[in-house]
């Protein structure tokens, strides 16, 4: 008869996903003063605990006995504690802590340990239905992002696209794994997929909030055409509809050309100057060069933008007939 | 054994020659085509416009011819002049019938799409020419209301006068300039309309005709020498020579020699007819005017 510290629980009992079967403890039940089989209390769906001896060992195990709420079997009244006078020291109370896959077992005052949390997470990660969650989450985020009809060039969404691809790829690998992989591998894949989905979503939101907005089709031109030495002013207006998404600046590209291409070239003899109409006063004056963008700073909360372009002939009286068109208008942040 | 060595040498020599030939042909293909390797450069010019381009006893003379000769000799090329009708000026370049065309050819955005220009080498506005005896009643454009004004095919003059702004003028087109002069002298037309440089040239040859100074139609015309787009490198060389020409004093000398009717009658003729050297870069060797 062996006394002293109880043996450690078997490794098979600790490994998650394993059989979870606890190896039977050494037959010490008769020697224990309380007749308890070291307080071991099988719970969950794991296999029954030791089939060892003890007062209750011979009794058939039932579901109630296996339930966590089952009471501890009372010590056999027939048992007597051994005393120091009569023999070896009484066996100390043992608080064993067996870890079984999906079947944690605790006793004593240290009821919740870090391993419990870990086991819960592992149980979730390794659950068969959890295979699809990361991929579904990534795909859902992709679909929702597309339905918002994001503006601006694709380059602004490069980071979110990259993270989306990573999220879908990791989720797909997670789904396609057939053989039971390690917890670490599965957890890593799931974590990467989820983090990439979240990161991609956040970067998409940021890019969408600050993306360039092409409003070329919403710029209206007012003024007499062709521009001549007499009628030499044209105004480009961007109304409230084009300014729904506020940005700090407007990048406007104008094309200056001869009104009649079959007539002698004359527009090169003219100079066009553009300025922002700010409260009726000209501001941010800029020389217009055909095909080159002009950048105007917009007031916060503005609902309408007017840009006036004035044409001047290098030598008055040349009768140049000039056309000015807006070929590009993009709202953007600095 | 003794015959193998010469055979090997022959093979090596042939391989080297082949390699050299291939390398030479590859290098040769990289060079852009040029007009200046030819024995002479053919230049299409007008033959019926005194002062700008006229043929007399198989010799061509006029400001267009002078400018073309000056630029080509500046790059070491020899010109050979041929006559070209107004309506064929651009097509002659596109069809490779002429290497260059220097024929009071106005630079327009639509023409710049088809050919390159070296210019402007002269600037003029569209005007009208009348008989001396009509000088008292034809002084401004409105005086031509309801009158027959002659232009000829292939010029921008007809399109300009045909616009709505000049709707009261009865403008018509004939085959060439000589027909218009004949109509004017015969009284079938009240006026002939085209570029003032050309009209002043006619007054040097035909007595009893004058250009109305107060009448200007449309915007100024810039004359350029047309060249095929595939010779863009040659175009740039010639335009560099043109800049030097405009920056010097030879332009005024040559202009006065060709068109004394202008230099004697128009007070600010250098300002009106001489383009700036900067404008050469805005119109030469481009697909569209700079802006």
UniProtKB/TrEMBL annotation, chain A:
Keywords: Membrane, Transmembrane, Transmembrane helix. The chain crosses the membrane at residues 132-148, 154-176, 183-204. Residues 1-14 have a biased composition (Basic residues). Residues 46-57 have a biased composition (Gly residues). Residues 25-35 have a biased composition (Basic and acidic residues). Residues 1-111 are annotated as: Disordered. Residues 59-73 have a biased composition (Low complexity). This is Uncharacterized protein. The lineage of its organism: Bacteria, Bacillati, Actinomycetota, Actinomycetes, Kitasatosporales.
Automatic annotation (TrEMBL), chain B:
Residues 1-28 form the signal peptide. It comes from the Bacteria. The keyword Signal applies. PANTHER family: ABC TRANSPORTER GLUTAMINE-BINDING PROTEIN GLNH, AMINO ACID ABC TRANSPORTER PERMEASE. Keywords: Signal, Transport. Pfam families: SBP_bac_3. InterPro entries: Bact_solute-bind_prot3, Solute-binding_3/MltF_N, TAT_signal. GO terms for cellular component: extracellular region; outer membrane-bounded periplasmic space. One of its GO terms (biological process) is amino acid transport. Residues 40-265 form the Solute-binding protein family 3/N-terminal domain. This is Transporter substrate-binding domain-containing protein. Belongs to the bacterial solute-binding protein 3 family. PROSITE patterns: PROKAR_LIPOPROTEIN, TAT.
């Amino acid at each position: 008869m062996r006394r002293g510290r109880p043996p450690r629980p078997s490794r098979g009992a600790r490994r998650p996903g394993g059989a979870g079967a606890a190896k039977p403890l050494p037959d010490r039940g008769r020697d224990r003063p309380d007749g308890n089989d070291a307080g071991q209390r099988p719970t969950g769906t794991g296999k029954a605990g030791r089939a060892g001896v003890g007062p209750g060992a011979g009794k058939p195990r039932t579901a109630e006995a296996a339930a966590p709420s089952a009471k501890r079997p009372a010590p056999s009244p027939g048992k007597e504690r051994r005393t120091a006078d009569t023999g070896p020291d009484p066996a100390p109370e043992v608080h064993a802590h067996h870890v079984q896959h999906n079947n944690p077992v605790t006793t004593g005052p240290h009821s919740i340990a870090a391993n419990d949390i870990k086991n819960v997470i592992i149980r979730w990660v390794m659950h068969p239905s959890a295979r699809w969650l990361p991929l579904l989450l990534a795909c859902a985020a992709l679909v929702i992002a597309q339905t918002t009809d994001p503006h601006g060039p694709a380059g602004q969404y490069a980071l979110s696209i990259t993270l989306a691809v990573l999220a879908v790829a990791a989720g797909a690998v997670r789904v396609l794994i057939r053989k039971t992989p390690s917890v670490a591998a599965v957890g890593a894949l799931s974590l990467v997929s989820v983090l990439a989905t979240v990161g991609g979503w956040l970067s998409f939101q940021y890019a969408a909030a600050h993306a360039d907005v092409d409003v070329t089709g919403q710029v209206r031109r007012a003024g007499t055409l062709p521009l001549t030495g007499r009628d030499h002013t044209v105004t480009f207006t961007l109304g409230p509809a084009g300014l729904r998404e506020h940005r700090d600046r407007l990048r406007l590209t104008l094309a200056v050309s001869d009104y009649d291409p079959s007539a002698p070239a004359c527009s090169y003899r003219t100079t066009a100057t553009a300025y922002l109409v700010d409260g009726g006063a000209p501001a941010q004056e800029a020389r217009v060069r055909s095909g080159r963008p002009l950048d105007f700073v917009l007031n916060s909360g503005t609902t309408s933008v007017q840009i006036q372009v004035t044409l001047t002939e290098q030598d008055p009286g040349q009768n140049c007939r000039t056309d000015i068109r807006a070929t590009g208008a993009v709202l953007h942040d600095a | 054994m003794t015959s193998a060595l010469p055979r090997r040498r022959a093979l090596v020599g042939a391989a080297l020659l082949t390699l050299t030939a291939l390398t030479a042909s590859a290098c040769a293909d990289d060079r852009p085509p040029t007009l200046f390797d030819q024995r002479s450069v053919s230049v299409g010019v007008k033959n019926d416009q005194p002062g700008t381009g006229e043929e007399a006893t198989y010799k061509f003379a006029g400001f267009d011819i002078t400018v073309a000769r000056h630029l080509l000799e500046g790059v070491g090329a020899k010109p050979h002049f041929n006559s070209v009708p107004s309506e064929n000026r651009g097509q002659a370049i596109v069809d490779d019938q002429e290497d260059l065309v220097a024929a009071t050819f106005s630079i327009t955005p639509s023409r710049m799409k088809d050919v390159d220009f070296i210019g402007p080498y002269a600037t003029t506005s569209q005007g009208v020419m009348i008989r001396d005896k009509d000088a008292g009643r034809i002084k401004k454009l409105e005086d031509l209301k309801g009158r027959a004004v002659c232009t000829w095919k292939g010029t921008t003059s007809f399109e300009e006068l045909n616009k709505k702004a000049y709707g009261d003028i009865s403008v018509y087109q004939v085959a060439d300039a000589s027909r218009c002069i004949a109509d004017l002298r015969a009284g079938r037309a009240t006026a002939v309309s085209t570029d003032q440089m050309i009209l002043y040239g006619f007054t040097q040859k035909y007595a009893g005709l004058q250009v109305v100074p107060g009448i200007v139609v449309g915007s100024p015309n810039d004359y350029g020498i047309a060249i095929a787009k595939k010779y863009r490198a040659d175009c740039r060389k010639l335009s560099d020579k043109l800049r030097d020409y405009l920056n010097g004093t030879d332009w005024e000398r040559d202009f006065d020699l060709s068109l004394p009717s202008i230099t004697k009658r128009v007070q600010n003729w250098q300002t009106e007819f001489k383009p700036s050297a900067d404008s050469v870069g805005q119109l030469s060797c481009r697909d569209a005017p700079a802006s």
